[in-house]
Amino acid sequence: MINSHLSEQEIIRREKLAELQKLGIDAYPAALYPVSHYADQIKTDFTESTKDKYSEVCLAGRIMSVRDMGKACFAVIQDSQGRIQIYVKRDDLCTGEDKTLYDVVFKKLLDIGDIIGVKGYVFSTKTGETSIYVKELTLLAKSLKPLPIVKEAEGQTFDAVTDPEFKYRQRYADLIINPQIKDVFIKRTQLVNTIRAFLNEHGALEVDTPVLQNIPGGATARPFITHHNALDVPMYMRIANELYLKRLLVGGFDWVYEFSRNFRNEGMDRTHNPEFTILEWYTAYKDYFWMMEITEQLLEKVAIALHGTTEVQVGDNIISFKAPFQRVSIYAAIQQHTGIDVSGMDEAALRDTCKKLNIPVDATMGKGKLIDELFSNAGESKYIQPTFITDYPVEMSPLTKKHRNKAGLVERFELMINGKEVANAYSELNDPIDQRARFEEQGQLKERGDEEAMFIDYDFLRALEYGMPPTAGIGIGIDRLVMLMTNQPSIQDVLLFPMMRPERTDS
Asked: What is the rounded distance in angstroms from the CA atom of residue 171 to the CA atom of residue 182?
């Protein structure tokens, strides 16, 4: 049977659609609908003194509830800005003897979820509720699937749909029944726009770099692999855009940035999604000390733009984005939280230390990975207020300039906020001979089985040989920053369409 997969309500709605068609009513008209006003705009501005402005209004929205009073109905429609009550009276909606539009179409063939357009005027009911007196009603889209019911009374919501499987897989329905979550994504756009304006004002140039790459460079991560049919070569979804942006500094640009969609074929949890957004920028003739200061300025500005203050509520914590941020070296951070000084340890001693602290390790991990595991497991979660963790071992940072004063370290910081890394920055390595040696070390790790070790990018080495100026670079995780600025506990809550396992499609 064709409709065997449909619920009873879905079948009934299709039958109503057929009845509308018999009446000559197009349930999906193509004509432009002249919306002139929005719900929240009217509810905010309408008063007795402004009512003349609202003697003729045209709104469009989704029916969210109906209260039948016989020859009249109150209903609530929801548009992109909010909800507003409408009043539909039989004798005003229908002229002459034919009452089909009210008695049949509106009362029997329309459903919760249908999108309608209404024309009329604004008035205030006896209870003081701002409403639309409907003089003309048009069906704009028939909803064939019932919305999950969300009960509301006296400003309280009951039986709200909170199932993550539903929320993330059917985000379109989640946005309808939980319109307040739109605020998260509006703030996300405001955050990106604030950053873009800040960088543009400072003279940076926004650019685009390839998503499909011959070599997945610029980070240590497992890539997604695809195939280019025309060239008959394997290709990789980018794990970072770093090496392309640096090529542009070789070419003569002083400051470039990109909001980069990156892809890493790794695990999924509350702070990781295989597809994510990162902001990277690279600035000539600067170093990581300058980068700390400009990052502080940027995050202060973002917090104020979204909240009007540098104090932001994140879970149970108040995070202060007021500069300056704390600075702690990675070795000091590990010693502070384990009581062990690992700064002089070789690979074997580091592996033994990890085992003593019950930190899982394996034979593929070199010195850099072991130190990373020590900090990640023992120290990272302790840094709630914004903190720059600085001066990493050279083994952890194959693209970073060696420290000017501290042997065996590099000029790098990671910014920790609320116990998670939000940014990673370097004084960039611009010595092509040193860079080649670092890449070769990564190649040896790959031979040991480290699937996240870097590939050798020979074209990037060729670019460096032309000369790249002293450079500071940073990557800021936009998704994690949005989580902080909107007080969301999971990365899936700040992605409109997070990665999900495919649904079974039996029908």
From this structure: 11
pTM above threshold 0.70 = yes
Check if the beta carbon of residue 373 is closer than 8 Å to that of residue 361: yes
pLDDT in tens, 97-146: 888 999 999 999 999 999 999 999 999 999 999 999 999 999 999 999 99
β-bridge partners, 156: 153
Q: What interhelical angle do 347-356 and 367-378 show, nearest 10?
A: 30
Does residue 166 lie in a domain region?
Answer: no
Last residue of a domain, one of 102, 119, 147: 147
**Inside any domain, residue 335:** no
The total number of structural domains that make up the chain: 2
Is residue 188 situated within a structural domain?
yes
The domain in which residue 276 lies consists of 183-325+385-494
3-state secondary structure of 126: coil
Residues 131 and 279 reside in one and the same domain = no
Instruction: Examine the domain organization and report whether 220 and 269 are in the same domain.
Output: yes
In a domain, 22, yes or no: yes
The answer to whether 157 touches 94, Cβ cutoff 8 Å, is no
Of the three residues 100, 124, 147, the one that is the final residue of a domain is: 147
- Can you tell me the distance from the alpha carbon of 507 to that of 502, in angstroms, rounded to the nearest whole number? 14
Residue 366 has pLDDT above 70, yes or no: yes
Q: pLDDT over 90 for what percent of the chain?
A: 80
Same domain, 193 and 286: yes
Structure tokens at 44: 């905010």
Residue 421 host element (H or E): strand 420-427
Give the CA distances from residue 374 to residues 330, 338, 454, in Å, rounded to whole numbers and listed in that order: 10, 9, 21
Select from 223, 294, 296 the least CA-distant residue to 263: 223
Closest to 421 measured CA to CA, from 388, 374, 454 = 388
Q: Hey, which residues does 57 pair with through a beta bridge?
A: 120
Nearest to 110 by CA among 63, 70, 68: 63
**Edge-to-edge order in the sheet of strand 225-228:** 212-213, 233-237, 225-228
DSSP strand E in 374-419: where? 387-390, 412-417
424 close to 288: Cβ distance less than 8 angstroms: no
Q: State the burial class of residue 245 (Cβ atoms within 10 Å of its Cβ: 0-12, 13-18, 19+).
A: buried
Q: 255-263 and 205-206 as β-strands: parallel, antiparallel, unpaired?
A: parallel
d(CA 292, CA 334): 21
What are 68-102's pLDDT values in tens digits? 999 999 999 999 999 999 999 999 998 778 889 99
- CA–CA gap between residue 381 and residue 435 (Å, rounded): 32
- Whether residues 280 and 407 share a domain: the answer is yes
